[in-house]
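Worked example

This section walks through a single chain of length 293. The input is the sequence exactly as stored; nothing has been trimmed or padded.
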Amino acid sequence: MICSSHLALHEASVLVATEWNVNPDAWLFLRVLQGAGCAFRGTSSLLLNEGDALVNAPGIACQLRASQLGALRVQYFQVLPELLTGVLSASERQHLERAAKQGRGFPRHLTASTPFARQFAELDRQVTAGQTLLARCEMLHLSAMILTEQLPPPASQPNQMLTAQQRFEMMITQMVESELLYQSPAVLAQQCGCSVRHFNRLFYNQFGHSFVPGRIELYLQKAKQLLEETDGKVIDVAMDSGFNHVGFFTSRFKKRFGCTPSEWRKRKEQTAKANGKHRRRTAVAPRHLLATV
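Given that input, the structure is written out below as tokens.
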């Protein structure tokens, strides 16, 4: 199974002449450490050799098959755009969601000679040396090399005075999502040169929901990460995520994810225990080996 942790390097082994069903819930970046095999999606197949890389989009199922000559050993990491609100703009995340739903061109094969695959090898050395911050930054760099290709080309800037719509489009493209959603609608409307009511209309037309639900979604995603990666009390997680009332936090969390924060944490702990892992304390967890039978 794929470990769902964000910006953490993992290892897995596919035994001789067996398959590993890969259906990631995030953007998956994988490199062959040893052996050879194939990646299958439907009737198409990709031959993988040592040093080659594979990129797959969320929800795109494929199978990795080891050759009959030996096991296939790989390393991989995942990137969840919803946890990159301090890096991605709201517009960029929206484009990545659309690209994932379309799934065209994935899984994508990159040979060992490509810059992406060569830099992936450098990531392995950073993790081995315990350089966790450099490793996380390198994962972001590697993912950006691929994800940037899923974004539209930058629009040329008109010479005439911009309309509120144009200023809004520039803002949601240039401002990272966390900064956008932590600002008040009044401040953002002022930057767009329009009324709060018109700003809310522009926001709804772009994202399909009003400004406040977008902010709450950002808070909930941060809370989910804190519940998984820390032992903090639910009330502390609520406050650290931006909620001022633990009851409101619990009700919104249950409505969004189908269980209470405590239940969600318990499920994650049970899953980690079943997989022989402890809850992750840092963004780059110690690498482990999975044998797929």
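What to look for: The CA atoms of residues 95 and 151 lie 6 Å apart.
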